[in-house]
Amino acid sequence: xxxxxxxxFRAVMLCQTVTRAAEMLHISQPATTRLIADLEEAVGFSLFxxxxxxxxxxxxxxxxxxxxxxxxxxxxxxxxTALDIRxxxxxxxxxxxxxxxxxxxxxxxxxxxxxxxxQIQITMLPHSSRTVVNMVSEQRCDVGFAILSMxxxxxHGERLLSTRMVCAIPAGHRxxxxxxxxxxxxxxxxxxxxxxxxxxxxxxxxxxxxYGIECKVxxxxxxxxxxxxxxxxxxxxxxxxxxxxxxxxxxxVCFRMFDPLLTTDFSVLFSAQRAPSIxxxxxxxxxxxxxxxxxxxxxxxx
Length: 302
Fold this sequence. Notes:
The chain is of the alpha/beta class. The protein is built from eleven helices and 13 strands. The protein has helices at residues 3-15, 18-25, 29-43, 59-86, 99-102, 105-116, 129-137, 199-210, 224-232, 242-247, 278-294, and strands spanning 48-51, 54-57, 92-97, 121-126, 143-147, 157-164, 166-170, 180-181, 190-193, 216-220, 238-240, 253-258, 263-270.
């Protein structure tokens, strides 16, 4: 007994003629007749009586039809589920992300993605980049977005994009009228910065040291959004990533090009134990395109 025979049987039961059943199955009328004959041979009893050019189901066929219908509905459901997975209309993603992305940018990117994939479910967990790396390696999430340099793609991660840091200064600051800020312009200024445990802080300190300029850090915080808030309150100037600058909603901060180049790399991390799903690959591609479409091209390195 084969599924195709059962499908032909159901079609004839529903359509009541072999001709319409064949049309429903998109096969020829003789092929449909052959499937019904094969099924009758397999079950050992007649399924239809032919009277005046029409097929009439036997009592045995009626009893069999109830079970066939239940079984084929289950198969149809499996087939539909497979189509939904292929077309990314079913599934879930658990995302861990650094605050620079999680606080505003990723919610907007996720909303745009879900507009095209409304049936999927997404969980987003904001954590430090270090924690994101650990969560991915321990398979506690499907994907991680972290501030992390990754110049060579691998099976467990790739660079999302590399960006150019910008200078954040309070509105009305003496440097607000300049298009480009350079290290000598910031001599004597108070700084708001990340702690020294982060690579971005080490980059900044090393650059200013090479110019013989002391960074007078007055406030430290791990969250770039908070850095912007401190700058807006007049507690200093800062160098931050352009995604935070793009997403920050306060009116009291100006963001300017900073020269020379200091980079912030955003990377996407996958579990090394399982390959990314179709849905996950599509989401990563969408997130990259979403960022590139909104960032000032001057602030995108690669």
